[in-house]
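Please study the protein below:
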Amino acid sequence: GDFDTEGLREGDEVILDPTQKVIVARLPKRKSKAAVEDDFNTVGWEQVGGQTHVIEEVRKVIEYPILHADILKSMEYKMPKGFLFYGPPGCGKTLIGKAILSDIIEKLKQDQGDEELEGRFIHVKGPEILNMWLGESERKVREIFQKARDYKEKGKFPFIFIDEAESVLGTRQAWRGHNISNTLVPMFCAEMDGIQSVRDMVVILATNRPDLIDPAILRPGRIDKKIKVGRPNRDDCESILKVYLKPNLPLESSLEETTGPFLDALFSRTPEQEALVLTLRSGEFKKLYWKDFISGAILEGIVSRAKERAIERAIKGEPLALKVDDLTEALKVEFRDNSVLPADSNMEDWLQLLDFDPKHVARVRRPDESNKATQKTITRSII
């Protein structure tokens, strides 16, 4: 009849005639909430702050196969397909993903002389893929990869970035509590097997719990490189603070004089900074301090609190200036907030994020802030 089949693709939804054999119309594509396509604002490495060794490794394993393919081919080097970024929340996994795409696009523009070249960052929030209706989650996975292939055909460079990957590509343990069976793992594996190399599209999985991702996903040939994005050390924290305390901000003292005492307070090991005490099954005690829970996201929150203090003073008529005390007081408030330190019900997950195997921990206690002298504790046994 009059139906135009041009552009019809596998997975498109159509209306059939009464015989169920003839397509009479194609339904408009339903927008999937799972894939959130950013407008792709360029992110420079200077916006990441810290993570120097991680950035170096990421550039090596992702950029080299794309920008220096001929050299790798001459060495018969197997091109990677996918990558895993793992580590605690708030430490920059998504930001690093956006920065590496920005870097690749800029270098490809120079190499190819194509100023019109664009990158597309397909940001997928893992839990939003899940759907109890039969076949719906699988359809969303197909859509995500098809979107990337469409961009590639249009001359754009696609990145697929899947956050909380364990929620959709998990082991049976990770799927406990979900009222649906996990058929997404074989679907994802089939899509990954259809990718020739990282030059087709870049696939990055991000997770706080790599141990909960199905081993079939993480085997070589699918997710070839695994990169840990850990908590920032003191130098990293200093770099991150410089991202949020820009030169144009009114500071009472110099940047170094402002951040130095704050970092001293953050990385000190005084009773005030004590957060948790672990009793290992070996009988050894391990104390954890505020610094052991720090992340770039927490530092951003601390700076925001400090700015609020400076703004409040200025509204009352004092000179507008951010002081050292603003940062140190914001630090105390941030860590006294229950959202930073782990809840007792979630202790096992937190031990994993702190690089402790729960099987080796007999007990966790939290010093009671109301009475440090008597060391009242909240005790949690790890089974």
